[in-house]
Amino acid sequence: MELIKHDLGKEPPSRELLEQLVDESHLEDFLNTRSPAYKERNLGLRKLTKKQGIDLMMEEPNLIRRPLAVSKGRGVFGYKPEQYQAIVSK
């Protein structure tokens, strides 16, 4: 199975994919805290639900931590090369 890296600027992930991958208990792991949109909206001061987080990601793809790599229904958000092989080999 191949590892697919999404170019979030050209093709943001679908809501269905985000709902599958995002874990509400660790929502901050999926958000780009360095994004101007994150700072402008004061998201660091708010406790978001999974739905609210995904709604924001759909509205503003720059809020998604990059890169996003997906394989076999599992995903890695952010630059974590050591985890890429783990999702491909499972």
Order of helices and strands: EHHHEEH
Strand order of the largest sheet: 1-2-3
Which quaternary structure do these chains form?
Answer: single chain
Structural class: alpha+beta
What's the helix count? 4
Cα gyration radius (Å) = 13 Å
Shape: globular
Kindly state the number of beta strands: 3
> What is the CA-CA span between the terminal residues?
10 Å
Poorly predicted residue ranges: none
Mean pLDDT: 86
Fraction of residues in β-strands: 5-15%
- Helicity level: 25-40%
Question: How does the major sheet shape up?
Answer: 3 strands, antiparallel
Report on this structure.
This protein starts with a strand and ends with a helix. The chain is globular. It has four helices and three strands. It has 90 residues and is of the alpha+beta class. Strand 2 and strand 3 form a beta hairpin.
Structure characteristics:
alpha+beta, three-stranded antiparallel sheet, 12% strand, 34% helix, single chain
Outline the fold blueprint.
Layout (H helix, E strand, L loop, with lengths): L3 E3 L8 H7 L14 H5 L9 H10 L8 E4 L2 E4 L3 H9 L1
Antiparallel strand pairs: 1-2, 2-3
